[in-house]
Amino acid sequence: MKQILVIQNKRIGDVLISSVLANNLKKRFPESTITYLVYPYTAGVLEHNPNIDHIWKVDETWLKNLPNLLKMIARVRRKKFDIIFDPYAKFQSRMICYFSGAEYRIGFKRPGKKLKLPFYSHPVHFIPKRTQFCGKAIENRLNLLNSVFPMEEMNDTPKIYITEEEASYDRIKHLKKPVIMLGVLGSTPQKSMPYEYVAQLIDYIAENYNASLLFNYAPYQKAEAEAIYNLCEHKDQIHLDIYEDSIRGFITLMNKCDLLISNEGGSVHIAKALDKPTFTIYSPYIEKEDWNSFEDGVTHQSVHLLDFKPELYESFTREERKAIEADPSKMYHELTPALILSSLKPYLKHHLAT
């Protein structure tokens, strides 16, 4: 029986899309035991997945402390993993791989950087361009597996598994349909639209559709969410009191909603994994083709400043575009509600016509 570890110490969306590794590894190695190493706040997207046997939760700050990192390395060595996948590819995960004793250590080779130590027995290059409908981020993770353990068919769709108790969730059964979840803030300020723009989009939806509107945001963003609410003119359709402050709670609530309109982030990947329609608004510095999984322009659709004003990007290299991550507000203001509504209006009409 093979012992397999997947290290994915990043944000919610990264962890969820990396679950495709487990889903395919169980087909490739049916008798294997699969463990995921993740940050505690992301573990909810992996819970109840029948292809994942163990979830190790480790705090980011704790792991960055060298004595604690050594403790984690010792724990991994004691487990005697046969195979380790490292989609994380950062200092801590590389050191865990290097000292793990695993025969197969599979991770990404970062472009332009020469590895000083053989962290991976099988370093894998990022794919240069997406070739599959699932999007580049998922395709890269599948390529980690397929490059070393080839498979004829691979499952490319992340899935969230709902328990019977969660399926019976009835907190919003009294709300008028449709129920629209609004991701009013991104996971970071750099992924969040200007508040006044968000309020204008919400007011358009409220004015034109007799829908119930819910807000999604991280618990620490409550004050910012309330600031957006206060900018809205049509507050009667917004139900601020209906909110879940855990990932598993949001999953349960989102499962009962009809669609999601959101800043790009983990909530979008969760909605897609629940087979809910999504409309995504990307931050100007995000590479859309990395994350726009399964977008067909009907069920899943998105907008990016590059779609409307490509000339703003013609003078930027990818590295230079990343440099504006610290303060993308100027370019974000170029992505006006009018531009977004040019795509959002037909999307809403299609999904909410009745």
Question: Which labels suit this protein?
Answer:
354 residues; alpha/beta; Rossmann fold; 2 domains; 11 strands; 15% strand
Number of strands: 11
CATH fold description of the largest domain: Rossmann fold
Strand arrangement, major sheet: 3-2-1-4-5-6
Shape, per Cα inertia axes: globular
Mean pLDDT: 92
Unreliable sequence segments:
none
Our estimate of the beta-strand percent is 5-15%
Structural class: alpha/beta
The portion of residues assigned to helices is 25-40%
Report the total helices: 16
Let me know the CATH homologous superfamily of the largest domain: Glycogen Phosphorylase B
* Radius of gyration based on Cα positions: 21 Å
Give a short account of the largest sheet: 6 strands, parallel
- Between the first and last Cα atoms, what is the distance in angstroms? 53 Å
Q: What is the H-and-E element order?
A: EHHEEHHEHEEHHEHEHHEHEHEHHHH
Q: What is the name of the CATH class of the largest domain?
A: Alpha Beta
CATH architecture of the largest domain: 3-Layer(aba) Sandwich
**Overall structural domain count:** 2
Question: What would you note in describing this structure?
Answer:
By secondary structure, this protein is of the alpha/beta class. The chain has two domains: 3-148, Rossmann fold (3-Layer(aba) Sandwich); 174-352, Glycogen Phosphorylase B (Rossmann fold), CATH 3.40.50. The chain contains 16 helices and eleven strands. Strands 3-2-1-4-5-6 form a six-stranded parallel sheet, with helices on both faces. A five-stranded parallel sheet has the order 8-7-9-10-11, sandwiched between helices. Strand 9, helix 11 (266-273) and strand 10 form a beta-alpha-beta unit. Helix 8 (195-208) packs parallel to helix 16 (337-352). It is globular. The mean pLDDT is 92.
